[in-house]
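# step 3/5: fold
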Amino acid sequence: MGLTRSRILVIKDDPTVADVLASNLRAMGHDVVVARTPDAALAEARTFQPEIALVEILGTACAETIGRLRAAAPDVQCIAMSCQPELHRVIEAFRNGATDFLHDVGDVAKLEGAVDRCLQIRNEKAEAHEALRRAEAQASQAQKMEAIALLTGGIAHDFNNVLQGIIGFTNMASRRIKEGRIDHRC
């Protein structure tokens, strides 16, 4: 399906599998960088700024790597992957921020599905952030309009008070003129 082109970081110590994954992802139209170790992955993440990271969950470093990646780049979507997963490691990966899990890394359709799900999540988050930004802008505009309304209402009230004094004295002077009580001392 392939929603959009994205930057994907593959973290896999086996160079053959990493190259196959990278080749499949590039064939789908994605930009791909491969890192063989967690430290290399973090260094690559700083410069490459991936949107998605495929992280191997063999050993104890996977959950830590996902946690460190998510701390460095909170918007990165992490896909944990393993051909022989241990349930406790998969759970640990999700607890540390994995978005998806890929069991059969050689199945291109499953790989594409996992990537598409991550891209969908990214797009939905972007839409939600944009909706929030628009709502905040509308609320700010409404507050500005309310402040202007209060200000103009206050000015109108003060101006009305001044006008009432002028109108009152004008009416009193007009009555005195009609009654012939003109005081020339003014």
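# step 4/5: annotate
The helical segments are 15-27, 38-48, 61-72, 87-95, 108-179.
# step 5/5: archive (pending)
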